[in-house]
Amino acid sequence: MKLRTLLCCLLLFLVGSKSPQSLAAQEEEQASTSRAWIDEARLNNAASEPGNWLAHGRTYEEQRFSPLDQINRDTVARLGLAWMYDMGTTRGLEATPIIVDGLMFLTGAWSKVYAFDAKTGALIWSYDPKVPRSWGQRACCDVVNRGVSVYHGKVFVGSLDGRLLALDANTGKLVWEVDTIIDRSRDYSITGAPLTAKGKVFIGNGGAEFGVRGYVSAYDTETGVLAWRFFTVPGDPAKPFEHPEMEKAAKTWNGSWWEFGGGGTVWNSIVYDPDFDQVYLGVGNGAPWVREMRSPGGGDNLYLASIVAVDVDSGMMKWHYQTTPADNWDYTAVQDMTLADMQVDGVERKVLLQAPKNGFFYVIDRSNGELLRAHNYVTTTWATHVDMETGRPVENTDYNYQESPQWILPGPLGGHNWQAMAYDANKGIVYLPAMDTPFVYAVDTAWKAAGDYRRRAGTLRLGIEWDQITQLLLDTPDAPKARGYLKAFDPLSGEEKWAVEFPHHWNGGVMATAGGLVFQGNSLGEFNAYHADTGDLLWSSNAYRGFIAPPVSYMLDGVQYVAILAGTGGASGLMGDVGEVTENYRNEGTLLVYKLDGELSMPVPLHRNKLIPEQPVVSASTDEIERGERLYNQSCLACHGIFVHSGGMVPDLRMMSKATHGDFMPIVRDGLLRLVGMPAFGDKLADADLQAIYAYIVTQATEDRLEALEEKEE
Prior knowledge:
This protein has 13 helices and 39 strands.
């Protein structure tokens, strides 16, 4: 008894002697990082800090609405450039800056992280995670990154090659690093911004187009230790299910989907809801796209194209809603989700708003996943409507591409992609970067007949006729017109309040403000401010660079600023169709920050040389050139552009110099330029295949050169 008492006293002494020191150490740590100390208390009371932009969508609600009004309808004409920073890249820039206590944190291409003085633009630190440049081949849609999360004095970022890093917010030094990839033989990537809440950092992955299995991981923010992992599609049913939801999901799949991944990656939106203590996962498309290949015999294929509510502490599912059962079109539901309190049919509801790719805008009860509204927000031909009793879209059988090629709206770029929308709670209006993006879908019958859908590393195999997409585009008549819009949309009534149409579909993210303004950059190189009630253009700045990133606003020392990354890219940008601005100017990525009466001049990028040089003579038959076209579409198009027309993010192969022509095989086969991002293909394609690709490139360049010369003579 005496021994036990002695031990208890000793324990109390140790605890008592260490607690003040531990508390002091914690206070010292917080004090040293106080300029970047974001926690739930600050985020839940973000209304008291209108001058900061603390999270991806400013607050946990992700409404992307700034309460600042110094820049308003009366003053916006005075808006000018305050400072800028050359991001040193021609690749796409998609990040949302985080602004806290005078510091700005954001990411650029290749997952690089930057910390700036938000008032002066002085670079405080930068961190390069040194992503292997060969990893660009494993990312379907550019080497982009959509931003960081700042929490408890750390900056969290996901790297393109699948790592999650915690950096010291004051110094940029690495605190810890974990590998999020469960299978390094598969082509996983990360392009989305992490989410932090309740001592955890949440991150998903990309890679469905390359045949991976989707999941979201939650890590302890202090240590990097895995807290839980939620899989979005089932694995091999012969093995134990990781959690009960996978056993339920497996009943909705057929065939041997696990051999080629299944898809369901959560590559963008993850949102925390403090009202219900749950995170919402926006789940992506199936792999392959064609459902009869992925799951022969049918099935909804849970939880593809779904919104899944998961308990933040346990990682167990609370509810799900599937926007596109048995996804057949790459209709991801990873698009930004917004939380709001809204009166629906006379009842106050806590709702989730989303405009996923499939063209329908959803209003969902956050407490239980009940569907409250589903209005189409763009032209939708694949389905006629959403049945409100079943919650399922009613597919239009006239557009079944299983039998013959079909132009379908929306295409795989969606009616709305990852580009952020904004919500004004006072008006009940969403400001949405929408698109009409038609695509000709056709089943890859040869691949389907082969029945082996396993991946070759770094190659897109989607189940559709991607190899012959250029020929399909030429041979399939009556293509619908592609357009882009900024829309003011009522999610309850489905009414379009106003819309601004652009000549190009690929446009940028949106921010609304209490100044009665809606800000957006577009593919024309314009950064615009619109009247929030009418859509009238009130201010415009020519940046000479296309935009896809969303703007943010903040205030320092009584001055309101608006910041945005300029530099287009992403899926549409790489495929070469991004409008005149990138045809005429180099896509020189730049961080632009504006204020009233800012006096800096906009930097004009270098002009692009559009004169295609005379091409060497190639000895290749028509059949060889056609085979080269198919191989190019399969292995090269996703980076170097459709019909070999580069969007300006990576080199235009029609512009190769004589030296590059001479080094074509060492570059493409052997990886001569692998350190700058051009991987080797010698392990995937035979020399004869590479020579056929070369013949196609030269033939296409010759045709384009002759056409340009004829137009010049006219």
